[in-house]
Input
Amino acid sequence: MSPTTETNDTPVLRIPRALIVVEGGVVSGTYEDPGVEVRVYDWDEADADPEGYPPLPAEWQDLAKASDAPCNESLLPIEPDRVPRVLVTVSGGVADIESSDGVDAFLLDFDDQKVNDHPITVPERFADLVALADQDAYVTFLSAF
Output
C-alpha cells in the first residue's frame, strides 16, 4: 500500500516517490519511499569493464529499453513484477531516469546548481526526501510543480 498523507482528517493515498541525487556526474544517493526499488546502471563503469559489470535483472527490461541498458538475457522474456521501480542510467556525467507507472521520481542534479550558482527548484512533495539527503540548503521548494 502507498504511504498516506492527512488532508482535513481524510487519508489520501500518495504515489510512491524516489529522489535521485547526482553530483559530479555520479549518483551520490537515492532516497525512496518504502516499497520503491531503485537501480543505477553506470554506462561508464560498464564500458570500462564490459565482462565484469553485471546486466540489469530481466524484470527491468521494460525500463531498460529507453536507455538500451542490458538485461540478463538468459531469463528473457519475463513479466516485470509490480513493485514500483526507478532506473537511473549514468553516461559521461549525464544522468537520466525512467520510472514504472505509479512512481513519482525526481532527479536532483547538483552539477547544474554549481555551474549556475542558483538553488534547484524541487517539488515540495519531495521535501522530506531532500532532508534525508541533507541537501535542503541547496534547493527551493515549490508547492505547485
Q: What stands out?
A: The CA atoms of residues 45 and 53 lie 7 Å apart. The longest strand covers residues 17-23. The chain is about 15% helix and 40% strand.
